[in-house]
Amino acid sequence: MDNISYSTYKNLIDNHILDFIPEIDHKSITVYESMKYSLTAGGKRIRPVLLLAACEFVGGNSADVKGAITYACALEYIHTYSLIHDDLPAMDDDELRRGVPTNHVVFGEAMAVLAGDGLLSTAFEAMNKDMLLYLDDPVKLKRRIRAIYEISKSAGCRGMIAGQVADIEAENKQCSKEMLDYIHLNKTAALIIGAVRAGAYLGGANEQQLRDLTGYAENLGLAFQIADDILDICGDEAEMGKKAHNDQKKNKSTYPCLYDLEDCKEYLSELTETAVSFLESYYDEAEFFTKLAEDMAVRVK
Amino acid sequence: MDNISYSTYKNLIDNHILDFIPEIDHKSITVYESMKYSLTAGGKRIRPVLLLAACEFVGGNSADVKGAITYACALEYIHTYSLIHDDLPAMDDDELRRGVPTNHVVFGEAMAVLAGDGLLSTAFEAMNKDMLLYLDDPVKLKRRIRAIYEISKSAGCRGMIAGQVADIEAENKQCSKEMLDYIHLNKTAALIIGAVRAGAYLGGANEQQLRDLTGYAENLGLAFQIADDILDICGDEAEMGKKAHNDQKKNKSTYPCLYDLEDCKEYLSELTETAVSFLESYYDEAEFFTKLAEDMAVRVK
To answer: Which intervals of the chain form a coiled coil (chains A, B) (predicted)?
Structure first.
């Protein structure tokens, strides 16, 4: 992998983010507008970027990476649906996301529920449709089936949804480190792990590559959430695109509730180092992943 | 197909309905309780029954039917998620479903949103996991890929969700027959068509069988919704398990808003006849499907 920059992958995603939404009849076009609104409201695209990078890292050629865009965008659809539902008044009741009003503020609650449902459904419809193109290519088909299973598992009731359930139930409660790790590992890390593993399968990873990338992703995923928790306390509102001290106001269970800020930063450093260590034996080949983890840790310093 | 009764298939579904939910950690077990509550609250199981019946009708053997149970239950997960979300205060705001309190009344709105998301995710996770078992059986694998695509398409933004979007937007409006057909064809018929087509693929249908079953399902699906609309006006509350005149109170767009009751019953008869006519050339072999359509029409007489 030749030092491909984050923005190369991100641009690919940004350019194709609406491509896998099926043509929707004008009689129900509002759901398209609502999905499009949230899909194009910015965002770092970290999950789809990781999917494409993992695909290329394990040896996927340019056709593999191109073919992986469907799965990368599907992953962003899933992430976006989770944000729309998470922002609902019955859930986190957020009115601002990425610097613009949340979906239900613009389209109403009913349409926001349906736009979320629509994005989750579209993610699977797009990946399933893609598989029809590979019915006579057993190697690529198997890779796709493994990738879609990784994505569905990480988004489901043993993954992201489990984390959201535990997060909601832990509100207003003093929460143990074990519970906090559980919430973060599922709410945030699961989809990041799913992204990396799906990308690895799509690129034809061997067992060793898969194990190393999984170790990296687990630690990166936790680091990512802790960085977010820290930023909620000391970040700049304009830069974050949302209100600061949001977690605190909602009595959310976060690391800074349990530990002082310096300990949180220390934990973040440890996780970053551990993440990077999983890919040490690949030397410069892993530069993209190393840089990504380190940049994230630097962001909160 | 030897005159298998509706209850044979329904019992299969009832006995396996919880089998495809993955093991969920106790830290997020509430979402399991919430999903289980709605999955076991009764219901006719018409979609999964149709899937199994279609699989057997086209020549699927007992192993094919057994293998199709995953897809049948996944379809019921999708149907159930749509009911949970549909009942939310922001949507139809229903407090009673199948004679028991709706999901959000028991588990709260946040958990109901997540239980719906969980069921939709679990449906795809279960089907994707099943495909892993057939990686080295290209014939059965292809049938599964086609089946899962049918299901995802029918549940998505060109199917069920499109219908729900149009339904919400048509509230409190005078609605044309074209719009009404669009709503019903998508909100209700789509998943019934998806069920029949997915079952047909899983049983190894040929093109002609697929076309005939699709024609049957389109008409059955519309008939099913019109029967429901009529029952909302003249049905028995105890039998329906929900309040009568619900549609009227919410200014929902239904056939009885547009036509008098006798015309609606006439339209129902026509659709039933057309549905049955698609399977005429199969004679007694199609008895299950014929009886199902006719029983439904009789229910509202």
So the answer is: none
